[in-house]
TrEMBL record:
It is a multi-pass membrane protein. Keywords: Cell membrane, Membrane, Transmembrane, Transmembrane helix. Belongs to the YccS/YhfK family. It is found in: Cell membrane. Its main location: membrane. This is Membrane protein.
Length: 637
């Protein structure tokens, strides 16, 4: 089967350089009209309410809070959405208060911006909600300093938070009717991708496996984020988790067919399609007959049959013990990430330096609205948004296109409420641009911000030109001070996550044959690590050629590691259905060899250590894959 890493490289390779097409999320086939309508209503709703009250400018701060919250809504459980929006509201409100207090302090504002940037970077290391809240802390501090809002500090903070709450309300409006809708949809999407995998077994299998793994990871994350706040066991959620665990069993059984040179067959495709149909809201199907035969085929039919029983309610999963982590434990984990994370420390220094330079530039008053320079720096330097180089280039290109569009609107539309019409159009296009790449999102975001600011200032078409110049200056600051001088920018950041993925694969090997953590848990950890490695690989390919060329030298090793994980899954599935099981000594021998490889990679040493003796029998495909991994890494030295 073609490698998923090779598939990732092929997607990003092509006529255009990687930094022009970079995106860290799969691009949708078409725009989502529901998401587009929700974002447009989130941003324009506060403005329409303020217009009805007689002063449209009173809706600007709520509209900004709503825009930040609406763009942060990327699915997940209702609880996860609420937590993210709470982080945005808290960060933005605190930033507005800090910025309003620091307005007019002259060069002291540079020190304030640096201090706020340090706090923002540390908070961003705590997790998704902290990342979004930290960004809004910096953004609203800058806006509070540079824009003459009429609201007093607490009033403005409350208005911003109210706008974020409005966007959240639109996002979770369906919760009273279907409290687990997000989790159910995520599980249904995973089985939909599993159905696609069976249908594309002969061609396009690599892409289908990648799509299924991504959907499976998203479904687990969605359920676990909701489950972490549950007061006790929940039968509905237990069933959803059991369905995902069974989806893993089906996937691994399908992979075992490759060892026997078989394909799933029409009966298996019909059964998997029936499961996906039930989870998508269809009726209960008649149970299709499933064939029996070799160990791999028996594994597939057993796994599919049990999944069908779960989906139709013919089998109820056993209750699973779950201990909700306490507030103290979560706080301790967040503190550890802030204090000891190397990437967090590097990002803190880079962000503080670049924001300090941008703030100093703003104090020189060489441009009319130079606070936009600081905004650009803050947005481009977010470490969890992808490649800094790609974002800086795409932001600049998007700003050029967006400024042109904004100028056309300001020339054609007179100042006043009529601006809300093109504003709603650009706001509706934001989710689509966000899913495609950073540059397209900037193309739509620049006109939105220009039109919002024009409602306050009435500056007219000149405003778009000012925004363009300041954006380009901000991108230049990021490249000169936040990218070029840093050694990490010129290294291929693949080694550490690769070592982590090898270690996770060793744990999975032990768990798959009863010598380690539970098989399902270990499988999730191993394939999540491979998915994270794939994301690092995709992002690194969007760096300049001097870096991306080094990254591509890892491609054979990544493909070899992927083959180790797939061989482990396939061998375990066959062993549970009649094929000979490996001995504990053979499993430990191969697992220790994997850990030895991980140790050499993590230490930056040549991989030429422990050999793997031929493991005659059941484990030979795994042992052979590990030998291939070791030899591939040794060839890189």
């Amino acid at each position: 089967m073609p490698s998923l890493f090779q598939h990732s490289a092929d997607r990003l390779a092509g006529a255009a350089p990687g930094w022009l097409v970079e995106t860290v999320r799969p691009a949708p086939a078409r725009p989502d009209p529901v998401a587009m309508a929700r974002v447009a209503a989130s941003i324009t709703g506060p403005l329409l309410a303020a217009l009805a009250a007689g002063t449209i400018t009173a809706g600007l701060l709520p509209a900004m809070g709503a825009m930040a919250a609406a763009l942060a809504d990327r699915g997940g459980s209702y609880r996860a959405r609420a937590v993210r929006v709470a982080g945005i509201a808290a960060g933005g409100a605190a930033g507005y208060v800090a910025g309003h207090a620091a307005r007019g302090l002259g060069w002291w504002t540079v020190a304030v911006i640096v201090a706020v940037s340090v706090v923002s970077a540390l908070v961003s290391a705590t997790g998704a909600a902290g990342s979004l809240g930290g960004l809004q802390l910096v953004v609203m501090t800058v806006l509070g300093m540079g824009v003459s809002f009429t609201e007093r500090p607490l009033t403005g903070a409350a208005a911003y938070a109210a706008g974020a709450a409005w966007a959240l309300l639109l996002s979770v409006a369906g919760r009273p009717l279907r409290p687990r809708a997000a989790e159910e949809s995520a599980v249904a999407a995973a089985y939909g991708m599993l159905c696609a995998l069976v249908g594309r077994w002969e061609s396009g299998r690599a892409e289908a496996v990648a799509a299924f793994d991504a959907a499976l990871k998203n479904a687990y994350d969605t359920i676990m984020s909701a489950r972490s706040a549950a007061p006790g066991p929940d039968a509905g959620r237990t069933r959803l988790v059991a369905l995902l665990n069974q989806a893993i069993a089906v996937r691994n059984a399908l992979m075992s067919l490759g060892e026997e040179g078989l394909d799933p067959g029409p009966e298996v495709a019909e059964a998997v399609g029936a499961i996906a149909g039930v989870l998508a809201g269809g009726g209960l199907p008649a149970r299709p007959p499933l064939p029996a035969g070799s160990p791999a085929l028996r594994a597939v039919c057993t796994a599919v049959g049990e999944a069908l029983d779960l989906a139709t309610g013919n089998r109820m999963p056993e209750p699973q013990a779950f201990q909700r982590p306490g507030l103290r434990a979560r706080a301790a984990q967040a503190w550890e990430r802030m204090r000891f994370g190397h990437l967090a420390r590097v990002h803190t220094v880079r962000l503080a330096l670049c924001m300090g330079v941008a703030a100093a530039f703003s104090e020189l008053h060489w441009t009319q609205r130079s606070y936009w320079v600081m905004l650009t720096v803050a947005l481009v330097l977010k470490p969890d948004f992808g490649s800094v180089f790609a974002r800086a280039v795409q932001r600049g290109l998007g700003a050029v296109a967006g400024a042109f569009l904004g100028s056309l609107v300001l020339y054609a539309v007179p100042y006043g409420p009529a601006i809300l019409i093109p504003l709603a159009v650009f706001a509706a296009l934001l989710p689509y641009g966000q899913q495609r790449n950073w540059g397209l999102m900037s193309t739509f975001q620049v006109p939105v911000v220009v039109l919002l600011v024009d409602l306050l200032t009435g500056a007219g078409p000149r405003l778009a030109e000012i925004r363009l110049i300041d954006t380009l200056i901000g991108c230049a600051i990021v490249l000169v001070f936040g990218y070029l001088p840093w050694p990490a920018s010129w290294e291929a950041p693949v080694g550490p996550p690769f070592a982590d993925a090898v270690t996770a694969t060793a744990r999975y090997l032990r768990g798959a044959f009863g010598a380690g953590p539970p098989s399902t848990t270990a499988h999730r950890a191993a394939f999540d690590a491979l998915a994270d490695l794939r994301t690092v690989f995709q992002r690194a390919l969007t760096e300049p050629p001097v870096v991306s060329r080094r990254v591509t030298t890892w491609l054979p090793a990544m493909t070899a590691l992927e083959q180790v994980a797939e061989a482990t899954a396939a061998t375990a599935a066959r062993a549970r259905h009649g094929a000979p099981a490996p001995t504990g000594e053979a499993v430990e021998e191969v697992a220790v060899a994997l850990e030895d490889i991980a140790g050499h990679v993590r230490a930056g040493e040549p991989v030429c250590g422990r050999d793997v003796r031929p493991a005659h029998g059941a484990l030979e495909p795994v042992a052979g894959a590990v030998r291939n991994l070791r030899d591939t890494l040794a060839a890189r030295c």
